[in-house]
Amino acid sequence: MSRILITGAAGGLGKVLRESLSGWHDTLRLSDISSMGEAQNGEELIQCDLGDAVAVMELVKGCDGIIHLGGQSLENTFENILNANIRGTYNVYEAARQQGVKRILFASSNHVIGFHKSGEKLDATSSMRPDSIYGVSKAYGEMLASYYHDMFGIETAAVRIGSCFPNAANRRMLSTWMSYSDFTSLIKKVFEVDELGYSIVYGVSDNPDSWWDNHLTAHIGWTPKDSSATFANDAHILAQVDDPEDPAVMYQGGGFAAAGHFEDP
Ligand code: NAI
Ligand code: 15L
């Protein structure tokens, strides 16, 4: 009997993985603060707030692995990010420790490194340069995962997802895009490799203009198959006029690096 937990299951990526990982393990336990509809064959649904430590302890009980997608996925107020991404991610790791879960995929983000210049080549050793409080919260999640690995041996793939959407919607995404199919194959590799350790992986397809190099995580054995080249001649991308002085163009984080700070009300 094997059971994988997906947090954030009502979100954009959660819905995709609910389909693409169906039947991969005996049971998919799906969780979100929002409704997830009806349970399908092989599914368990548990609705809860990741900020609720008692609920998350119950949620993680009996799971063999966790795909942790849940939380604020865009810049927001500090209070909202605090509950979902800071407290929530701590609750997931602490529950994993107490319930004996040995492996987690943490949905980190390119916004951990978003203030590096566009075009600069990065790998897993590049310095964190978050472009938002959201990016800072993902950097915290990565550090938490590193600590739980060194202290307790819980293995994590911290996947710095680029832009995981059906297509590349703008020129920046020609560098940052990852297909749903490549994300699915990465997840399978992460849970199947013998030794994962604590690994930082850039979640990006095989794009000709990618800024990110995964040679340091070759042990995972993941080779993305798709490429943003498919979208390079789309009319909306060819028509896009970029101002090289615009922070959204200058920095890898795009609009996040240009957006400014969200004030708490
Ligand atoms: P999304 O915003 O569509 O989904 C996130 C889900 O988390 C939502 O269903 C939301 O209800 C849930 N959630 C928020 N706060 C919660 C709480 N306190 N308790 C329980 N659930 C809560 O985001 P998406 O696009 O599906 O992304 C999934 C993960 O991947 C996020 O962590 C995001 O930061 C990360 N990511 C996604 C990228 C992408 O291109 N889609 C790029 C980089 C990172
Ligand atoms: C992210 O971290 C967001 O969750 C996603 O919605 C996109 O904005 C993505 O980064 C991106 O940089 O394209």
Structural description of this entry:
The chain is α/β, with parallel strands linked by helices and 265 residues long. It has nine helices and nine strands. The chain has helices spanning 12-20, 53-60, 78-99, 133-152, 171-176, 180-192, 235-238, 247-250, 255-258; strands at 3-7, 27-32, 43-47, 65-68, 103-109, 155-161, 163-164, 177-178, 198-203. Helix 4 (133-152) links the parallel strand 5 and strand 6. The longest helix is centred in the middle third of the chain and has 22 residues, at 78-99. The model has no long low-confidence stretch (mean pLDDT 97). D-galactaro-1,5-lactone is lined by residues 73-74, 109-111, 163, 176, 254.
Give a quick rundown of the structure.
With 265 residues, the chain is α/β, with parallel strands linked by helices. It is built from 9 helices and 9 strands. It has one domain (3-258): 3-Layer(aba) Sandwich (Rossmann fold).
Please give a handful of descriptors for the protein shown.
alpha/beta; binds 1,4-dihydronicotinamide adenine dinucleotide; single chain; NAD; binds D-galactaro-1,5-lactone; two-stranded parallel ribbon; NAD(P)-bd_dom_sf; 265 residues; seven-stranded parallel beta sheet; Epimerase_deHydtase; 9 helices; Rossmann fold
